[in-house]
Amino acid sequence: MPIQKNDIANLGGLEFHARQIVEGFITGLHKSPFHGFSVEFAEHRLYNTGEPIRNIDWKLYGRTEKLFVKRYEEETNLRCQIVIDTSSSMFFPVRRCLDVQHPNKLWFSVYSAAALTELMRRQRDAVGLDLFSEDVDFHADAKLSPVHVNMIYNRLESLLSPYDKSGRKSTGTVACLHKIAEIVHQRSLVVIFSDMIQNLDSYDDLFAALEHLRYNRHEVVLFHVHDGLLEQQLDFENRPYRFVDLESGDVVKLNPLEIKEKYEEIMKRRKDELLRHCYQFQVDYVEADINKSYDQVLTAYLIKREKLG
Length: 309
Description:
The protein is an alpha/beta fold.
């Protein structure tokens, strides 16, 4: 099912700027670690509507009546690496009819990623993509060419399929994040979409993987994708259910009301623990509840990020 352009969120005039120093190769939206290392003129490029006008070459405009921007060697663009968990748990909730208004966790992540890709393209920032389940199944370095961006859209579209129990995939979040920390270009912005479901007894291994990303000087944004009603609050009717693990196929039969109070307590404690750790290690934590529209979640986060600077 193709991603429809009119389904991709219109994020208006919002921008996604790096908060920490990044390494790149063009434009001037983000701080470069090489500032002052070389300020030699590199080349001209066409001016894009909405950019600051301070670097426009007005003398060249007088000769050509076209707007060109001067590029210098020390300027940098943002390298954004989008990382999506594609394990079988991301297909929850399993629906007969899936669309952008009624997504599962994976669809929510795909449309969010497509919107961020479009935002990066508009900013002339480089974007890359990693998809993981048991292992890193796909990796593309951050680039900004139109051909590369179209490849990312095509890869994202390939994920928009219903749940297939014959192709169950478990989660190797910890090992995959460690691997991604090493293969992604240093000082990148790494945006992760995951339900963070692995080793429910402890988050310690997951914390170590996030710390590895930060240790390698990446800025990290974690979109914790979940169904706030069904997964966090166990909001089911008062009757027996047959719950099937989407990754293992294991079956549990019970009435959710019998364990609801204890379950909510455990899930709240786990989420609070994750939030505290993200705050401690300067990882942006974004609660991505699929009961809200993905563009609502993205817009709220980008506005908050702009205000915090």
